[in-house]
Amino acid sequence: MLDREVDSREVEVEPGCHRAVVEVLEERLAERLAETFKVLSDPTRIRIISALATNTYCVHDLAQALDLTHSAISHQLALLREMDLVSYTKDGRHVYYALDDDHIRDLFQQGLAHIRHHARSDDAAPVGASA
Q1: So where are the chain's domains?
Q2: Half-sphere exposure (CA, 13 Å, Cβ side) for 101?
C-alpha cells in the first residue's frame, strides 16, 4: 500500500506481540473497497463478470447465456458500470460490454482460485472437522 493510503497508529505492545505500529487502510478507501465487494456479492453479477472475463458481449448475448431478461441484465450492468467494473463501447445500435480493466479480471480469478483452494481443502478434511 502507498503511504498516503494507510493510517499508522502506535499501539501499546502486548507481551508476545512483535509490532508496535499498526497500519490500516484509510477510512474512505476502505469504504470504497467495501462498496466494490458489496456490488460483487451478487451471484448474477459474478456470472456476468465471469462471462466478460473471457470476451466482450452485448446485453442480448448475456441475457441468453444467463437465461435472464434484457432488462435484468441491463440493470446489473448499470450497477457494475457505476462502480467502474465494466465499460462499454457502441457499434451502431449495439452496445458491447467488457471488464473495465485487468484488475477486475484478476480480482475475479483470485477470488475463484481462493474458493477452489478451500473447496479442495474442505473435500480432504474429515467429516466434522473445520478447515
Answers
A1: 1-38, 40-131
A2: 3
